[in-house]
Write a structure and sequence with these properties.
EC number: 3.5.1.41
Number of domains: 1
Family: Belongs to the polysaccharide deacetylase family.
Shape: globular
Strand content: 5-15%
Order of helices and strands: HHEHHHHEHEHHEHEHEHEHEHHE
CATH superfamily: Glycoside hydrolase/deacetylase
Structural class: alpha/beta
Radius of gyration: 20 Å
Bound molecules: 2-acetamido-2-deoxy-beta-D-glucopyranose
Largest sheet: 5 strands, parallel
Cofactor: Co(2+)
Distance between the termini: 38 Å
CATH architecture: Alpha-Beta Barrel
CATH topology: TIM Barrel
Subcellular location: Cell membrane; Secreted, Cell wall
Protein name: chitin deacetylase
Length: 463
Amino acid sequence: MQLQAIVTLLSLLGAANATPEHHIRLGKRQNAGAVVASSSSSSSSGAPTTSFTSATLTSNSPVPTTPVGTTIPPLVNITSGMATPSTVPLSATYSAGATPLISGAPVLPTPCKLSYRSASWPTQDQIAPTNSSEVSQWMEELDGFNIPDITPTVDGTCANDPAAAAQAASRGWWTCGGFTRVTDITACPSKLTWGVSFDDGPGFYSMELLDYLASKKLTSTFFVIGSRIVERPQVLVEEYMAGHEIAVHTWSHRPLTMLTTAQVVAELGWARKAIKDVIGVTPTLMRPPYGDIDDRVRAISLAMGMVPVIWTSTGTGATFDTNDWKVPGGVVTGPQSFATFESILTNATMLNTGFVVLEHDLYAQTVDLAIGYTLPAAMNFTPALTFDSIGHCNGIPSTNLYRESNTNTSFPYPNSTSGDSSVPSGSGGQGNSTKTSGALSDVIMPISMVVASLLAAGGSLLM
Ligand SMILES: *[C@@H]1O[C@H](CO)[C@@H](O)[C@H](O)[C@H]1NC(C)=O
Ligand SMILES: *[C@@H]1O[C@H](CO)[C@@H](O)[C@H](O)[C@H]1NC(C)=O
Ligand SMILES: *[C@@H]1O[C@H](CO)[C@@H](O)[C@H](O)[C@H]1NC(C)=O
Ligand SMILES: *[C@@H]1O[C@H](CO)[C@@H](O)[C@H](O)[C@H]1NC(C)=O
Ligand SMILES: *[C@@H]1O[C@H](CO)[C@@H](O)[C@H](O)[C@H]1NC(C)=O
Ligand SMILES: *[C@@H]1O[C@H](CO)[C@@H](O)[C@H](O)[C@H]1NC(C)=O
C-alpha cells in the first residue's frame, strides 16, 4: 500500500520529467538519490488523514516576494514538477590534514579512504544486511549495555501497529505520542535560539545551501545518509570544512523501530563508516529517520556512542516539521510548507526553550525553500532569533561531536534509557520523560521510503 503510493508518485515524477520543458534541467536531478516523500493517505481504520492541520494551511501572512538577484523561483512555483536549477560546483579541493573551520574538530584524514564498491558496501537505499563481518564487530559495542527487549514495530507507523502504539509511553516511542527521554536532544536550551539542521544529504543542491549559509555566517548540523555520502563524498568534505556539524542519519533511511537490533546496528554503523572514511571522524550525534525512535533504538544508539537528536514538539500535537520533504512528491506545496514554517516560528516564541526544525537539503525544492524563504524569514523575524548548530547551542564542545577528539567520558551518555533524574538533563531536551505531542503524531509520521537510486551516473563524483 505504502510502496504503491510511492511507486505512483515516482511514475508521476517520471512523467513530469518526460515533458520537454522540464527535460533539460531535470537531467541532473534524475541521478540524485530519490528519496520521495509521500504521506499517509489512510489509517488502519480507513479514516482519511492529512499531513497538516488546517491552521497551518491558512496563514494570513502575505506570500513573500521572490528573492531578488537569485535563481530561486517564486514560492508558488516551488512544486513537485518544477524545473530544477543547475548545481553549484564544489568550491575547493581540500588537502589531507586541512583544518575544518569548526574549532577543535579533527583535521581531514590522509588519504581519503572511501572507496565505494557495491561489493564491499551495502546496496544503496536498501536496509543494510546484518551478516557481514563489519556488523558482527559493531554488535560487540552493545556488550555490557542494557538494550530493552522491545519487539520491533510493524513499519514505524502508529496506525499499522496499534498494539505497539498502545505501549508507546512505556516504549518511549516518539512517533506515537512524541515520547522523549532526557537523553534526547530536541531543542536548543536558550529561548529564541534555532538549532539549524538539514537532513538526508549530501545532495546535488547542498553546495548551493552551503554557499548561502556561508554568506550569512550561519552554521548548521547536517544529518547525512550513508547511501548519499558514497555518491557525493566531496560535498560532505565541504560541509565539514565549512564548520558545520556532521551527524549520522543511517544508511538507508528506514524507520528504525521496525528493524531488528542487528539491522539498527548495521544502519547506524555503515553511515558512521562512510563518514569516517570520508572526513575521518565518528559522530557522537545521530537523528533517527522520521524521528522514529523508542527505548530500544535509543539504547542501541547510545551504546554505539551516538546521542539521538530529534526536533521540537510543542505539546499540542504538532512537531516542528516544515513538511518540505513532502513538496518534491507533490503532497504539500511550497506555500503550504512555508505557512507551516511561519506557524513554527510563531509557536517557537511561546516556548521557554529554543527549538529545532526539520528541514532537508536533498532536493532543489527543499533547498530553494530554505535559502529563498525560511532562512530569510527567520532572519527578519521579530522577536530576533539566534541561529546556531544543534551541538553548539546545547553547549557541546565541537571536540565532543566526534569520537576521535571527544574528551568527555559522560558524553555520549551511559546507557540509561529510563529517563530518571540520574541521567544528565543538560541536553536541551525537554528534561522530562513525558508525552510531548498528541494524537496527530501518527498522521505526521511519514511513510516515505528511500527508493533505489542510480550509482552508475555518480561514478565520477566518487573519491
Ligand atoms: C512560475 O510559474 C508560472 C506558472 O506556471 C510560470 O508562468 C512562470 O514562468 C514561473 N516563474 C518562474 C520564475 O519559474
Ligand atoms: C549475506 O546474506 C546474503 C543473502 O542471504 C548473501 O547473498 C551474502 O553473500 C551474505 N554475505 C555474507 C558476507 O555472508
Ligand atoms: C547498562 O545498564 C545495565 C542495566 O541497567 C547495567 O547493568 C550496565 O552496567 C550498564 N552498562 C553501562 C556501560 O553503563
Ligand atoms: C502551532 O500552534 C498551534 C496552536 O497550538 C497549533 O494548532 C499548530 O499545529 C502548531 N503548529 C506547529 C507547526 O507547531
Ligand atoms: C560532559 O557531558 C555531560 C553531558 O552532556 C555534561 O553535562 C558535562 O558538562 C560535560 N563535561 C564537560 C567537562 O564538558
Ligand atoms: C516536567 O513536567 C512537569 C509536569 O508536567 C512540569 O511541571 C515541568 O515543568 C516539566 N519540566 C520540564 C523541564 O519541562
